[in-house]
Amino acid sequence: MKFFIDTANLQEIQEAHDLGVLDGVTTNPSLMAKEGIFGHDNVMAHYKQICEIVDGDISAEVIATDFDGMVREGEILADLHPNIVVKVPMIRDGVKAIRYFSEKGIKTNCTLVFSAGQALLAAKAGATYVSPFVGRLDDVSTDGLQLIEQIVQIYGNYGYQTQVLAASVRHVMHLVQCAEIGADVVTCPLNVITSLLNHPLTDIGLQKFLADHAKGNK
Ligand code: G3P
């Protein structure tokens, strides 16, 4: 399973990269705004910086919601760097844009997916990735992980090449269960990735090893 980091924060991206387990990055307009990145030139420069840190797929989202606008923005984004994946919302013109990009060999990530039917449409349109939002479904008392299971099964039934990118992954159990289900990718904040390190028995065990070693070296 690939690990993507879901942030536009360069320090966090660098930290996850330095851990040696990072496969890519996802961003969205909210995450860019959180870092104070506004204006076309600043946004483009920021994506370029991310591409310099991580040698993996980097999702950059279009803002337009009409076909022509999404195509225009997506082509500019895709020209920035070969690793850019054009992130397109699951709306009618978005599906058409995904088909267009797919035929041009431009990678896409279909975002804001909340149902198996939407995921099926994204795959039919030729999306490279589909992003079901696990945590946001949980937020409205719907089992987000069940959707991941459904999509993995449906794609498997027909051999769709679209990769299931579990998004809005908020904690370790989300991540581990996505791996059990067989999601191709998870994207999550840095703290979810680093939380995988934690186990109290590891800390206790290490303390004991070091204490015993110290005894013999007195
Ligand atoms: O990848 C989508 C993600 O950014 C949404 O996460 O936690 O805002 O629902 P969250």
From TrEMBL:
Keyword list, A-Z: Cytoplasm, Pentose shunt, Schiff base, Transferase
Known pathway: Carbohydrate degradation; pentose phosphate pathway; D-glyceraldehyde 3-phosphate and beta-D-fructose 6-phosphate from D-ribose 5-phosphate and D-xylulose 5-phosphate (non-oxidative stage): step 2/3
The keyword Nucleus is assigned to this record: no
EC code: 2.2.1.2
Keyword Transferase: yes
UniProt xrefs under InterPro entries: Aldolase_TIM, TAL/FSA, Transaldolase_3B, Transaldolase_3B/F6P_aldolase, Transaldolase_AS, TSA/FSA_arc/bac
Family: Belongs to the transaldolase family. Type 3B subfamily.
UniProt-recorded name of the protein: Probable transaldolase
Organism this protein belongs to: Pontibacter ruber
Upper classification of the organism: Bacteria, Pseudomonadati, Bacteroidota, Cytophagia, Cytophagales
Annotated gene: fsa
